[in-house]
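Journal club side-thread
Mid-discussion, someone asked how the predicted structure for our own chain would compare to the paper's figures. Pasting it here so we can look after the session.
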Amino acid sequence: MFLAALKRPVGWISAGALIFILLLALFGPLLSPFDPFEKSATVLAGPSVAHWLGTDYLGRDVLSRILTGARLSVFAALEVVIIGFFAGVIPALLSVYSGRAFEWFSLRIMDTLVTIPFLVFAVAVTQLVGNGLQQAMMVVGIMISPAFFRVTRSAALAVGNTQYVQAAVLAGASPFWIVRRHVLSKIVASIAIASANVLAGGFVVVSSLTYLGIGIVPPNPTWGGILSSDLAYLGFKPYAPLFPEY
């Protein structure tokens, strides 16, 4: 599937964009031309040879803050995917092969999570347990787990209705053996697609939370936080919000 996608121009473009973002997350802080926390007297300056994207309201280099904030923003989105994966895939498999009681309970939990607006819930939880990146990403990961749960459960049910799986059940195979031997290899493609969708949504959620000042404490730079600070100075730099968005 992956190799087939790379044979198309849109596949190469998408892969190139993802690799570029990953490289920013890995090496962005090392490429920063200035200290992202260093203040100067040159505030709200426009792009120049010294400061390619100008400076913010405290005189900090915008490019350096965007490069440094890439690591937090990207890895926070990856953390959301990992937490959602374990909170959604494992219960989905157990709901198919662990009996009616767990199936009913897990379905009710996922139905509840779907109905809760996760941004509002994330704000409420961080106010209770403290404003930190780990707390916020844990909440978002759990709230986004129904995306993994539904895809995994649907794929597992389709595999469970096949004759070779039913034959294995009649032969006395344990649910763990059936999942490991027959199910995982059949549902990995569906989970990979769900992971890509959740990762894209994770970027938006992380940026939204940091835009609201949740999950990160200033002056640590994040893309959402930089965007939020730029919007307060539109009269001086109307183009400034474009840089964090890209």
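Post-session note: The two ends are 28 Å apart (CA to CA).
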